[in-house]
Amino acid sequence: MATIFTALQDVQARIDTACTAVGRNPAEVKLLAVSKTFPASDIHALYQFGQRAFGENYVQELVNKCQILAECKDIEWHFIGPLQSNKTRLVAENAAWVHTIDRLKIAERLSAQRPQHLPPLNICLQVNVSGEASKSGLAADEVIALAEQVVKLPQLCLRGLMCIPESSHDSTILAQQFSVLVQLKAQLQARGLTLDTLSMGMSNDLESAIAAGSTLLRVGSAIFGLRHYSS
Ligand SMILES: *Cc1c(COP(=O)(O)O)cnc(C)c1O
């Protein structure tokens, strides 16, 4: 377990350095530990180390881990994978956040299925900032229309936008793609929406994401190690 703690500290140090470099306060940047494919015991170890926000991509894996870790009541589970309509209930019942909304139908089901005794489900709309056909997410010109419908759903709380840029080490390309998300958030705020979240930045691009204004990093392999099956 020493390695997982060291890795988490190394990631926190990268975040601190990247924030300092651009004059940001590290407290503005939340770290989501993306635990998909890794065992609940790893999550529990990080929990004891103080980490509270964990990200999962697969509904059944999320549900299993929620059950195993039920005694860790203040874990904040974020669902960050593709979501089909027949799986929305399990996510509405178990997650605190969903980052991957790009269809009204899924948002409506989550709102209807969110248990009344829980706070509203926090939502980010996923935007396809790279334009790659393989990526899910809204086109930039679809974001305002969906946001204005999602804010009306009673059991959801629209928090912001999420993106996965193209896999690149070119910081110019990354900066350009992250800036699409930043500009869209500003447009939504100009229309009166209260948003506080830019979910962007992963193991390989978190410095660029912080420079662009990320408030929530989704970091997997830099903490847990390489995954043995792909996402
Ligand atoms: C797997 C995954 C991550 C974490 O990726 P790493 O490169 O391992 O940090 C972040 N966001 C999403 C949507 C993912 O599916």
Strand content range: 15-25%
Mean pLDDT: 96
Please give the CATH architecture.
Answer: Alpha-Beta Barrel
CATH topology name = TIM Barrel
Domain Alanine racemase N-terminal: 11-227
Keywords: Pyridoxal phosphate
GO molecular function: pyridoxal phosphate binding
Pfam families: Ala_racemase_N
In summary, what is this structure?
It contains 9 helices and 8 strands. The chain is of the alpha/beta class and 231 residues long. It has a single domain (2-20, 27-224), classed as TIM Barrel (Alpha-Beta Barrel).
Report on this structure.
The modification N6-(pyridoxal phosphate)lysine is found at residue 36. InterPro entries: Ala_racemase_N, PLP-binding_barrel, PyrdxlP_homeostasis. Residues 11-227 form the Alanine racemase N-terminal domain. Its cofactor is pyridoxal 5'-phosphate. It comes from Deefgea piscis. The longest helix has 20 residues, at 2-21. This protein has 9 helices and 8 strands. It is an alpha/beta fold. Helix 1 runs parallel beside helix 8 (206-212), helix 4 (88-94) crosses helix 5 (104-113) and helix 7 (171-190) runs parallel beside helix 8. It has an 8-stranded parallel beta sheet. The protein has one domain (2-20, 27-224): TIM Barrel (Alpha-Beta Barrel), CATH 3.20.20. Pyridoxal-5'-phosphate binds next to strand 8 and helix 9.
